[in-house]
Write a structure and sequence with these properties.
Layout lengths: L1 H7 L15 H35 L3 H34 L1
Helix pairs in contact: 2-3
Amino acid sequence: MTFLIAASSFTFQVTPDPGHAPGATGIQSAVDVIAVYTLLACLAGFLISGATWAIGGHLSNDHAATKGKSGMAIAVGVAFLVGAAAAILQFAYSIG
């Protein structure tokens, strides 16, 4: 019975500190590089989708124009998520 009482008073605490983790700076650099390449891919997708929308609209091809519009929206959405990822994760961590 005393074991259960002692176990119930124990609380878990998580305090992340990247300064004490081995290899944290390397992982942070890798994440930054992935974010840069993802944003460059979003830029390329945005430009290609814009061209597809323009050409599809000029040729009266509604399917191509619609795919170009949706491609531009997806590229903007992914770029937003890449930029907001740290803030979203920090918000989720502060809730719990």
